[in-house]
Write a structure and sequence with these properties.
- The radius of gyration is 16 Å and the shape is elongated.
- The protein has helices at 66-82, 90-101; strands at 3-7, 12-16, 20-25, 33-45, 50-60, 86-88.
- It is of the alpha+beta class.
């Protein structure tokens, strides 16, 4: 389920896809494993410009589990992107999108 945010000061609407995690090799050695945490973000502004970005970060598997890596990702990287924005409903997001696209 997506999350929606709106930053009134910058007039930006955000659609954030669910955060996903996976276990990956971190380098050449077999014992070096990491947790890849990533999400897709769509940003729309009132100039009718749309930006799509993938945010991702690697966390050492020996220090994090999937849930703690997701929490760290949300609290640091994702927070930097949407700081200043307030959470809105999908209905509010769609009405903003309608205004922008008309």
């Amino acid at each position: 389920m997506c999350e929606y945010y709106f930053d009134e000061e910058r007039a930006l609407a955000y659609k954030i896809n669910p955060i996903t995690t996976s276990l990956v090799q971190n380098g050449d050695k077999d014992e070096q494993k990491a947790i890849l945490v990533h999400t897709n973000i769509k940003v729309t502004n009132f100039k009718k410009e749309k930006i799509r970005r993938i945010l991702s970060e690697l966390y050492p598997a020996d220090q994090y589990d999937f849930e703690s890596a997701k929490k760290k990702f949300r609290d640091t990287l994702l927070f930097k992107v949407i700081s200043g924005a307030k959470k809105i409903s999908e209905k509010e997001y769609e009405s903003i999108k309608e205004i922008v696209e008309s």
